[in-house]
Specification:
The complex is a heterodimer of chains A (245) and B (638). Helix content of chain A is 37%, strand content 12%. In chain A, helix 2 packs antiparallel against helix 7, helix 5 packs antiparallel against helix 7 and helix 7 packs across helix 9. Chain A has two domains: 109 residues, Ubiquitin-like (UB roll); 120 residues, Fumarate Reductase Iron-sulfur Protein, Chain B, domain 2 (Orthogonal Bundle), CATH 1.10.1060. Chain A contains nine helices and seven strands, in the order ββαβββββαααααααα. In chain B, helix 3 runs parallel beside helix 6, helix 4 crosses helix 5 and helix 15 runs antiparallel to helix 16. Chain B is α+β, with helices and mostly antiparallel strands. Among the domains of chain B are: 136 residues, Succinate dehydrogenase/fumarate reductase flavoprotein, catalytic domain (Flavocytochrome C3, Chain A, domain 1, Alpha-Beta Complex); 130 residues, Methane Monooxygenase Hydroxylase, Chain G, domain 1 (Up-down Bundle), CATH 1.20.58. In chain B, strands 5-2-1-9-17 form a five-stranded parallel beta sheet. A five-stranded antiparallel beta sheet of chain B has the order 11-15-14-12-13. Chain B has a four-stranded antiparallel beta sheet with strand order 16-10-18-19. In chain B, helix 3 links the parallel strand 1 and strand 2. Classes of the chains: A alpha+beta (245), B alpha+beta (638). The interface between A and B is large, with 78 and 81 residues.
């Protein structure tokens, strides 16, 4: 198939940036979206032009590196799918595709489709852990964690930290991302002791890093490639209220 | 030269405890005076950086991704082994040790493997304490599943994302240390040289991938946890950015590269769809718990829909050839068996390079819901890539390069032959011998990071004065100049071929001639082709853009330049090892029924190569392997 791409090109954080148009030719439906972009880049290199810079690494939907808004939707809008897992069979010959970076105040564009997501790191550093030291811990079976609780924690822990929730949110909130870690650790006996301090420090950091607040649009849940539920935001809110008591 | 691994003597059961007691310590007040550079933040590097930071060392950690959490350990699916014996099925530290030695086809060091088995239990406890949501039963106890190469269930797992959850555990410990100020993170930073002063590792030269600036970092010790090199095959299950670069730069500064020819071709990957493919995707080995491998008995049936091939016309070849391990035969054996069926023109799917992995029997036994519970995310991933529903139609799988057992040579302390340079996880060669068993990579990465390096780095640090060499030393300036010169050289070739075209050419040679089965003739052909491709690279590659900006072409070009040098030593190692063992299969050395034939008399050693210059014959150093606790035997899974 042949496609027309409109791709966001921006030399650096200070550049204004604009959409440029490229043709993607002879694309097979078995190619992944990133393999289609690889093809376009090969053509650009051969004609002496600067290839499109985009983040990617594992190409199997788990590292969370890829970060593109495709036709207005983070990761392209397929259910539970990262850009790297999106395949060209979802498109048809002659389609026009718009490709942009994550857009949020907390995610400055570094080049083309690459953004700086270090603000997400700061939230994790604020309290996304249990304060256990290496060694000197109890036997793994000393803490009984019934399957429903372990499953709930795992549902939250599946977050890959890509930032699609932020990119999809009208407030550019990182609430889903933060709530996933808060919820995972709040229900586990290992994490309960620090639950109050954790939720406070993580949400405080969320605001100081320039993310917005949650006003229940649920766009994040829709965009999340791992299907993280907004129920965890409700859980975060409850944990937050508990921390004030 | 005969290398000495400096393994402890005496009874193996006491070896690690004794070694720990014999090690010198660094007192708590002195620890903060030492700066340790950790390159790579996967399971080994992330766990190591966090643990060393907790101890009070001053740690700086580097990764090329934008976050430590994205290292490729994240993609490991199936699980992590430990000798807990929770299922009461006969497991023990000794059995895990034995299975790992045997699984590695008797090409690993006994003492290192013993230590790994011993600390395996601590790893599970550590991860639980961090909040890793391992699978549990309704009462709350940890659950186990089976994996290849073992007859006990010792694999702990978190759905099909065990690597992700373990890495996020290590990442959380690392984040805690970053906040505490003991670890400084340098994301989007790639190591491009090791700085060696008077024969001792004293720092690294890196490229800031955002600004393009070449920077120097001094350290009292340098620890590489930079993963494996199977992207030398171009198509592999590794992430796109995985490379041999950090390890190879160290090798060019004198570190020996051990057993480069031991690579793991994983049996259960999604077959290649076409020539525009950029990577291959693994389907967890855990799928072989319930999936049955088969191909049609008759060539004529290969084009039929799998459902139209009657039961009696199917060849469940693993169950037929290896009745006692069946579909859970080790990876090297399962991969070669798949290749044999396809070479016999009984493969299925495009190009007939595929075999079926069928769940029908398991679905009939336990129901679709249970299978979905166990492997749901893997079936989903399979469908995204192939547009086929594996609940209704068997998966098609084919072997793909996945893991490197070889790596930089290290002694028992994980220290390379360059004092002050330590190597952890997949980047070293130490515990998997010639073949790694499933669920052992996560175990090794975390063992090295949490429970080995925090101890074994101390005797070295205790023997030196901290901070004697800093960035103002001329060796740093010289290293920066060399790195910049290479970058400028690559940017000024302005040839006709792209980096990925040349990488594909190298990959084709490596896969065809140095892949699952190698011969004297194929290896000699590879050794002719590799320098030709390397010459073409240096004369005809087109690397666009500028040095002082985000430049992904330049990053890839640098990695390919290193693969093009490394590939030669890889092929030479395979050529010199006139035996078949584990993942290294030489067609000249096989039994009548096609099994690998080891030659313990002549090759029971670690082959460690010393780089002498591009195009110059490398020198082979040997470390003889002694087996005092496990009897050298023909590995049988029949």
């Amino acid at each position: 198939m042949n496609l027309t791409l409109h791709v966001w090109r921006q030399k650096g954080p200070e550049d204004k940036g604009k959409l440029e148009t490229y043709q993607a030719k002879n694309i097979s439906e078995d190619q992944s979206f990133l393999e289609m972009l690889d093809d376009v880049n090969e053509d650009l290199i051969k004609t002496g032009k600067d290839p499109i810079a985009f983040d990617h690494d594992c190409r199997e939907g788990i590292c969370g590196m890829c970060s593109q808004v495709i036709n207005g939707k983070p990761h392209g809008g397929q259910e539970r799918t990262t850009v790297c897992q999106l395949h060209m069979r979802e498109f048809k010959d002659g389609d026009e595709i718009f490709i942009e970076p994550w857009r949020a105040k907390a995610f400055p564009v570094q080049k083309d489709l690459i953004v700086d997501r270090s603000a997400l790191e700061k939230i994790m550093q604020a309290g996304g852990y249990t304060s256990c030291h290496t060694g000197g811990v109890a036997d793994g079976n000393a803490l009984l964690i019934p399957k429903p609780t372990a499953d709930y924690a795992m549902d939250a822990a599946e977050c890959i930290g890509c930032g699609a929730c932020v990119a999809s949110c009208p407030n550019s909130s990182a609430m889903l991302y933060t709530s996933a870690k808060v919820s995972q650790l709040a229900v586990l006996p290992q994490g309960k002791g620090e639950a109050k301090a954790r939720v406070k420090e993580m949400t405080d950091t969320l605001l100081t890093e320039g993310f917005g607040n949650c006003t229940n649009h649920y766009e994040c849940q829709e965009a999340c490639p791992k299907g993280i539920s907004v129920k965890f935001i409700a859980k975060l809110n409850r944990e937050y209220l508990k921390s004030l008591a | 030269m005969i290398l000495d691994g400096k393994t402890p003597t005496g009874p193996i059961e006491k070896s690690w405890d004794k070694a720990r007691f014999d090690m010198k310590l660094v007192n708590p007040a002195n620890k903060r005076k030492f700066k340790i550079l950790m390159v790579g933040t996967g399971l080994a590097g992330g766990a190591g950086a966090a643990s060393l930071g907790e101890l009070g060392y001053n740690v700086e950690a580097f990764c090329y991704q934008d976050s430590a959490r994205r290292a490729h350990s994240i993609a490991a699916q199936g699980g992590i082994n430990a000798a807990k014996n929770y299922p009461n099925d006969g497991d023990s530290i000794y059995r895990l040790f034995y299975d790992t030695i045997k699984g590695g086809d008797f090409r690993a060091r006994e003492a290192d493997v013993w230590r790994l088995a011993q600390v395996s239990n601590n790893i599970i406890d550590q991860c639980v304490a961090q909040g890793v949501p391992f699978a549990r039963d309704y009462a709350g106890y940890l659950d186990n599943r089976s994996f290849g190469g073992a007859q006990v269930s010792r694999t702990f797992y978190a759905r099909g994302q065990t690597g992700q959850q373990l890495l996020l555990g290590a990442y959380s410990a690392l984040s805690r240390q970053v906040k505490a100020g003991t670890v400084k993170m340098h994301p989007r930073t790639e190591m491009l040289d090791l700085v060696v002063v008077d024969g001792v590792a004293k720092g690294i030269t890196v490229r800031n991938l955002i600004t393009g600036k070449i920077e120097s970092h001094w350290g009292d010790a340098v620890v590489l946890a930079t993963g494996g090199y199977v992207n030398v095959f171009y198509l592999s299950t590794n992430a796109m950015g995985c490379s041999v670069t950090a390890a190879w730069k160290a090798a060019k500064k004198g570190a020996y590269f051990a057993n480069p020819c031991y690579t793991q071709i994983h049996p259960t990957c999604i077959p290649q769809h076409g020539d525009k493919q950029s990577k291959l995707t693994l389907m967890s080995e855990s799928l072989r718990n319930d999936g049955r491998c088969w191909v049609p008995k008759n060539e004529a049936d290969c084009d039929k829909a799998p459902g139209d091939v009657p039961e009696e016309d199917r060849d469940y070849y693993l169950e037929r050839k290896y009745p006692s391990f069946g579909n859970l035969a080790p990876r090297d054996i399962a991969s070669r068996a798949a290749k044999e069926q396809c070479d016999d023109n009984r493969g299925v799917g495009p190009g007939k390079r595929g075999v079926y992995l069928d769940y029908q029997t398991a679905i009939d036994r336990v129901g679709e819901a249970t299978i979905a519970e166990r492997y749901g995310n893997l079936f989903e991933m399979y469908e995204k890539i192939t547009a086929e529903n594996a609940y209704k139609r068997p998966m098609r799988i084919y072997p793909a390069p996945h893991y490197s057992m070889g790596g930089l040579w290290v002694d028992y302390q994980c220290q390379s032959n360059i004092p002050g340079l330590f190597v952890l996880g997949e980047a070293n060669f130490s515990v998997h011998g010639a073949n790694r068993l499933g669920a052992s990579a996560l175990m090794q990465g975390l063992a090295d990071g949490y429970f080995v390096i925090p101890y074994t780095i101390a005797p070295y640090l205790a023997s030196i004065t901290p901070g004697t060499v800093k960035e103002d030393h001329p060796a740093f300036k010289e290293s920066v100049e060399q790195v910049e010169a290479q970058i400028n050289k690559m940017l000024n070739i302005n040839g006709k071929k792209t980096v990925s075209e040349l990488h594909r050419e190298l990959g084709t040679v490596m896969w065809e001639d140095v892949g699952m089965a190698r011969s004297d003739a194929s290896l000699k052909n590879a050794l002719k082709r590799i320098p030709e491709i390397r010459d073409e690279f240096w004369n005809n590659v087109n690397v666009t853009g500028e040095p002082g900006e985000i430049n992904q072409q330049l990053e890839n070009a640098g990695r390919l330049a290193d693969f093009l040098e490394f590939a030669e030593i890889f092929a030479k190692d395979a050529l010199h090892r006139e035996e078949s063992c584990g993942g290294h299969f030489r067609t000249e050395h096989q039994t009548d029924d096609g099994e690998a034939m080891r030659d313990d008399e002549n090759f029971c050693y670690v082959g460690a190569w010393e780089f002498k210059g591009v195009g110059v014959e490398p020198e082979l150093h040997k470390e003889p392997l002694k087996f005092e606790n496990v009897k050298l035997a023909v590995r049988s899974y029949k």
